[in-house]
Amino acid sequence: MPLYGYIIRRTFSAVLTFFLVFIIVFFIFRILPGDPTLIYTGSVGALTDVEKEALLKSFGLDRPLHEQFFVQLWNFLRGEFGWSFYYRRPVIEIVAPKLLNSVILAFSSFLLVYLVTFIIAPLCVLKKGSYLEKGILLLTFLFRSIPTSLMGILALVVFCGVLGWFPVGGVVSVGVQLNYLSLDFIYHLILPTAVYSAYLYALPTLVLRGTMLEEIGKDYAILLKAKGLSNSRIVYKHILRNSLLPTVTTAALFVGTAFGGQAVIEYIFSWPGVGRELVNACSWRDYPLAQALIFISSISVIFMNLFADLVYGIIDPRVKYER
SS3 of 90, please? Predict the structure, then answer.
């Protein structure tokens, strides 16, 4: 199948997947028990029946479910996410800064994770069977097995409470204006990035290490060894490049799931991002805000999977786009 045909087929599959996500998310929020009008009052019975009906009508919640569905679908296709029940502002105004904060945290974690991966995985292959490799693998499995909630709390206690090296949370210090290029912002970014990366680096590291160990036993690697090339040159120049394909998948999934997956980290470190806001929106029964945040996370996962499939052919020319 030609490349353009594959792109069309995968794009259609991505659109269909997103449409199914839209349907599931829309009906789940309306099936769950709870009353969204409580956001305005905070207690049951604070509104009369007439006032409650007027409030539901103002948000279009008095219509039948199928009408609400098509109205929201049409609005979403036009880029309109509606008004937040809790903030009483357009959803897009709330999501934009939260999304930027999550992107910064996810991107900084991504860079740190794959910097560590491309250092540790080849080192484990070169030092296979040594105490150094065993120690690295022990730490890798240890970081992966500790829940991010526990790891984050321990980091707060040790590095913030005991040592006092980092701030407890937030994006900037109290009274300081937010500036993404300021040292104060970077200072607040270091600890959540380090904790999130410590948990995530295990997967790409183990995947890359396993793939490299398979590649080093193949005929071309043995031939290079017979020609007199050093182990380090074989590993870093030849084996590493031929082992990148599975790592692309983990990288794409990392970026795609970062917005929702880092919710725990955002909550512990009071980082105002998409994941933290999604937890709040679900507890508030804020339909428009929660749906918009879930759709953003879904789009990122779907798009990055599509991106990974298309990049395969660039990294490894042996991959062909066929049925």
Answer: strand
Give the SS3 label for residue 83: strand
Which run of H or of E encompasses 151? Answer: helix 148-155
Residue 77 near residue 34 (C-beta atoms within 8 A): no
Q: Where are the domains of the chain?
A: 94-285
Q: What is the pLDDT, as a whole number, of residue 217?
A: 78
**Whole-prediction pTM:** 0.78
Q: State the CATH architecture for 94-285.
A: Orthogonal Bundle (1.10)
310: buried, middle or exposed (CB in 10 Å: 19+, 13-18, 0-12)? middle
Res 269: pLDDT? 86
Region 225-230: what's the mean pLDDT? 79
More confident residue, 107 or 50: 107
Burial class (CB in 10 A: 0-12, 13-18, 19+), 121: buried
Per-residue pLDDT of 65-87, as tens digits, reads 777 788 778 878 777 777 787 78
